[in-house]
Amino acid sequence: CARCPKAFRNKQTLMVHQRVHTGERPFACAGCSKTFRNKMDLTIHQRVHTGERPFACTHCPKAFKDKTTLTNHQRVHTGERPFACTHCPKTFRDKKTLTIHQRVH
């Protein structure tokens, strides 16, 4: 990317990334007009309107609209905490919680 240090393996991925810098959001939800940078984010968002939850947990009855949320949820059952703070011994199930925690330091 000419605007930041990120690098990509193919031109299509670079083009989608560049929308972060340009603000372009060409994919609009027909249900609420919310816009997205890429088609997959739109597809996942549309499940809010349809109620579809195609990613089911194998440990409990819960199901989720995207695979990332399922993966994070499954760590509740496995006890896995792969995200470690570099400033203290705490570990976390998901990157978002680690990022929030690191603001304390």
TrEMBL record:
It comes from the Eukaryota. SUPFAM superfamilies: beta-beta-alpha zinc fingers. The keyword Zinc-finger applies. SMART domains: ZnF_C2H2. It is found in: Nucleus. Coiled coil: none annotated. GO terms for molecular function: DNA-binding transcription factor activity, RNA polymerase II-specific; RNA polymerase II cis-regulatory region sequence-specific DNA binding; zinc ion binding. Keywords: Metal-binding, Nucleus, Repeat, Zinc, Zinc-finger. GO terms for cellular component: nucleus. Residues 1-26, 27-54, 55-82, 83-105 form the C2H2-type domain. Belongs to the krueppel C2H2-type zinc-finger protein family. This is ZN182 protein. The gene is Znf182.
